[in-house]
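Team,

Forwarding the record for the chain on the shared tracking sheet. I've put the sequence and predicted structure together so nobody has to dig through attachments.
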Amino acid sequence: MAVIRESDLIDSVADALQYISYYHSPDFIGAMGRAYEIEKSPAARDAIAQILTNSRMCAEGHRPICQDTGIVVAFVKVGMNVRWDTNRSLEDMINDGVRRAYLDPDNRLRASIVADPAGKRGNTRDNTPAVVHVELVPGEGVDVTVAAKGGGSENKSMFAMLNPSDSVADWVLEMVPEMGAGWCPPGMLGIGIGGSAEKALLLAKESLMESIDMPALKARGPTTRLEEMRIEIFDRVNALGIGAQGLGGLTTVLDVRIRDYPTHAASLPVAVIPNCAATRHVHFHLDGSGPARLEPPDLATWPKVSWTPDAGVRRVQLDGLTRAEVAGWKPGERLLLSGKFLTGRDAAHKRICALLDSGQPLPAGLSFKDRVIYYVGPVDAVGAEAVGPAGPTTANRMDRFTETMLDKAGLLAMVGKAERGPEAIEVIKRHRSAYLIAVGGAAYLVSKAIRSSRVIAFAELGMEAVYEFEVKDMPVTVAVDSQGESVHETGPRQWRSTIGGIPVAVDR
């Protein structure tokens, strides 16, 4: 009978979460390398190059791949012959491992979990609690898979109770465009079919823990109906032309994974959950001999891709930026930003707009007049860093605040990730503003452009406070210009027509 010590589980969870914060798995790196080799869209190829460069930098520097270091999900299979050397619950031990990992002074991870989610939404400060799924199985060991799921991709999860005669593939093809680019493609789709409502969602999440093997599957050919469906959905989703970061291109998904379970004769529950370009999960086994040991991946696994800006890229000085200069930016144009801008996310925007809409002044020293804002919640700095990994957050969460920020606050432009909604685009056009995107999944690379950081307002919000960053040559792309043209509309449309030949939707 194996005896699992409390400290072995806690240490293993902490080590695993640190490990996945800075190491991509070799299957993901291989798939991204193949996507880079075949990509024909310059914008998408540039984005993939940034993601791959960022990935290697994180593996070498042991810093987070993405500033959103995720909500922790643990799948635990406990052998029924195991004895525990502890008086604590399984969840308590796992949460201790989470706490230790996220507060590690050598690689502090971002605390993103808020309690009282429909009320005060206070940050728990240590990223606990984790979401834990436990299964009792035959055996004398404990198998644990831990994942750190970013909010941008988790927010794009979809679920439906279809009719038994409906096509699962057709439904997925309808959902993927609705997801937009906030899940940071290219990544992976996990699909769960059957069971009950909650079972389908759990199946979809569990499928994301599997490795990427689409090239091998295509090479040998499908042997089951689910494998046929995987290939069908993979081909049809990529034919949508959404591409890396939604900019238009050949690769939107690297793989599609599907799990199913028997269901009621009247039902067809289906869930789809995407994994982003910072996909993070690892498995370990405990047998009583001590904590798990995870071997670092060989750096030779990474393709020889090193991102550098285009030779003809436009350099933009943020200090003294004018509306006339903003009006000269072209859709899809890549820029390098230097100078100072402010940051802000959901919580800060809510406070700022409440003050402005009620006619009250902003906190002393805070002014957005003729400034640029970056939608970001950075990781804390370690060592000599000005700031930790600081990639963009999903911009359309700020759409509801855009009119107030452009009109009453006087913003010139915004930087985030993914598409803006039609109403926000209309506001941008009316105010002759612009929206820029940084690459989601390249947070450490982006942070290297940040020379200094200081809190300006709402320090109690932690990573959601308003900071002032000084940057040097921070890479961005013009996503919405002052005329309201969006590359998240024009790019996929162009590449969808270029790809052609694969049906992407069927009327139901």
